[in-house]
Specification:
By secondary structure, the chain is of the alpha+beta class. It has a domain of 119 residues: RutC-like (60s Ribosomal Protein L30, Chain: A, 2-Layer Sandwich), CATH 3.30.1330.40. It contains four helices and six strands. The longest helix is centred in the middle third of the chain and has 19 residues. The radius of gyration is 21 Å and the shape is globular. The protein starts with 23 loop residues before the first helix and ends with a strand.
């Protein structure tokens, strides 16, 4: 038996059984090392793993012909929606103006996709919002609240240096059809 200086020879070392629940001390240390926003995103993915093991086939919705990308992936009743940018549905150009305009364009695009898949904003359980400027947080929240007047999903907002196509905001969702 191996003993350490912190355990006297009269007492055996405690057994270290694997656990699926990391201690609070480990969680705080990990958050300090990688940054809170990145840590929360990783923790969210880790906690979503049991949902990923649901019964049923993996179905890609609206896959792209040009890049390895699907607008949504469904397993059972759970949907993982890729991030959307605030582009105009008609011109595919970025909405000009404030973060509010981009947010509205994003949420309208999700509303259309949700309708095709038989889910709604009431089924959304998790949202991730990426903003390039903290100043746009209030504008985003005003529009966002119109789509989630009650029982808003869990959400984090992360400030990033840049987004694709010069966007100011990107939003992704996880939904569970009721």
């Amino acid at each position: 038996m191996v003993r350490s200086a912190s355990h006297p020879p009269s007492r055996p070392m405690p057994s270290h059984r694997p656990s699926h629940r990391p201690s609070h001390r480990l969680l705080h240390a990990a958050a300090r090392r990688v940054g809170t926003g990145l840590f929360l995103a990783g923790l969210t993915a880790f906690l979503a793993l049991p949902a990923a093991a649901q019964e049923g086939p993996r179905i890609a919705h609206q896959p792209s012909a040009n890049i390895p990308f699907s607008a949504a992936v469904q397993v059972g009743d759970t949907y993982w929606f890729s991030g959307k940018l605030g582009v105009s549905a008609e011109t595919r150009a970025m909405e000009e103006g404030a973060v509010a305009a981009e947010t509205r364009a994003i949420l309208e695009a999700f509303d259309e996709l949700f309708g095709e898949l038989g889910v709604g904003f009431e089924d959304v359980v998790k949202a991730t919002v990426y903003l390039t400027d903290l100043e746009g947080y209030g504008e985003m929240n005003e529009v966002y609240a119109e789509y989630f007047p009650e029982d808003a999903p869990a959400r984090e907002a992360v400030i990033v240096a840049d987004l694709v196509a010069g966007a100011s905001i990107e939003i992704s969702f996880i939904a569970v059809r009721r």
